[in-house]
Design goal:
Elements: H1 2-26, H2 33-64, H3 71-104, H4 109-112, H5 115-133, H6 135-138, E1 150-151, E2 157-158, H7 159-189, H8 191-200, H9 207-234, H10 240-246, H11 248-264, H12 266-279
Antiparallel strand pairs: 1-2
Helix pairs in contact: 1-2, 1-11, 1-12, 2-3, 2-5, 2-11, 3-5, 3-7, 3-9, 7-9, 9-11
């Protein structure tokens, strides 16, 4: 039951998150830092969906054949899942930093936050996340998943690697929370000044404030989705079944994000709708 639900959520996550990514790529009016970084976050959610469709489908196959997946397969599944988690965390941090710069330092926003700098940041995020996530495949892993001092997920992860994982996930999480607190404080204290900043950079009134609150919602959803598994890892839980069950929250997070985009951001909603209108030749 859980595997089937995870596969369905994974398929939805892939399809629903691809739509805003394609919309940002296709429509020039969305070629701005905030939407580029948002598309990057959606791309990591696409990866999450693919990872869970592949992982849950593979697990379902081994369950039905009453066999155990080899350690190589388990490590690949964990690597793809962890890669999606790292890219989501760092992508959300970059997106939150962009909103923080606009809200708090709006007068210098145009000169300091550009599309090119955002693209460089995206490349750094994916390369750095890939290097961290690939360590079990490169050999930083246990010989057996049941070895002492190892977590059973990912074919067996040594506690030293788990600590590294938690440290480099905690850093962006802490930064996201602090940046969001700064954004909300500034929004509350300086509403009139923010309106002047929007006028200075030619941004439509209230849209950027709405996008800032949207990122706060996405942050809350992200924490709800990823904190259970990271908490279990921090406690060095050895119950494989309980670890697997809390992973459902991860793909649920990726499935909810495109719904948040659609309800909160009218420009994204319109651009996605135009994809279907254009495809029908209207």
């Amino acid at each position: 039951m859980i595997l089937s639900m995870t596969i369905c959520l994974g398929v939805w996550s892939v399809v629903a998150n691809l739509l805003p990514v394609v919309a940002v790529i296709k429509h020039e009016q969305l070629h701005t830092p905030v939407y580029i970084l948002m598309a990057n976050l959606a791309t990591s959610d696409v990866l999450t969906g693919i990872s869970y469709v592949f992982g849950s489908g593979t697990t379902l196959f081994y369950v039905q054949t009453d066999s155990i997946p080899p350690n190589v397969m388990a490590r690949l599944m964990f690597t793809s899942m962890f890669l999606s988690g790292l890219t989501s965390a760092y992508s959300l941090m970059a997106l939150t930093a962009e909103r923080y710069w606009f809200i708090v330092h709006g007068m210098t926003y145009v000169s300091n936050v550009t599309n090119d700098k955002c693209m460089v940041m995206i490349v750094v995020i994916w390369v750095w996340s890939g290097l961290l996530a690939m360590q079990p495949v490169f050999g930083w892993s246990c010989a057996m998943r049941v070895d002492e001092g190892c977590l059973p997920i990912g074919g067996g992860l040594p506690h030293s690697y788990v600590v590294l994982v938690l440290v480099f996930v905690f850093i962006p999480m802490a930064a996201i929370i602090l940046l969001n607190m700064g954004v909300l404080w500034c929004l509350w204290k300086h509403v009139n000044a923010i309106t002047a900043q929007e006028a200075a950079v030619g941004a439509p009134s209230s849209i950027n404030r709405k996008s800032a609150f949207t990122i706060v919602i996405i942050t809350i959803v992200f924490l709800v989705g990823w904190m259970p598994i990271f908490t279990r890892m921090a406690l060095f839980a050895t119950d494989y079944l309980s670890l697997y069950k809390v992973m459902v929250f991860i793909v649920l997070n990726s499935a909810i994000n495109p719904v948040v985009y659609g309800f909160r951001l009218q420009e994204v909603r319109r651009s996605v709708a135009r994809l279907f209108v254009n495809s029908n030749g209207r």
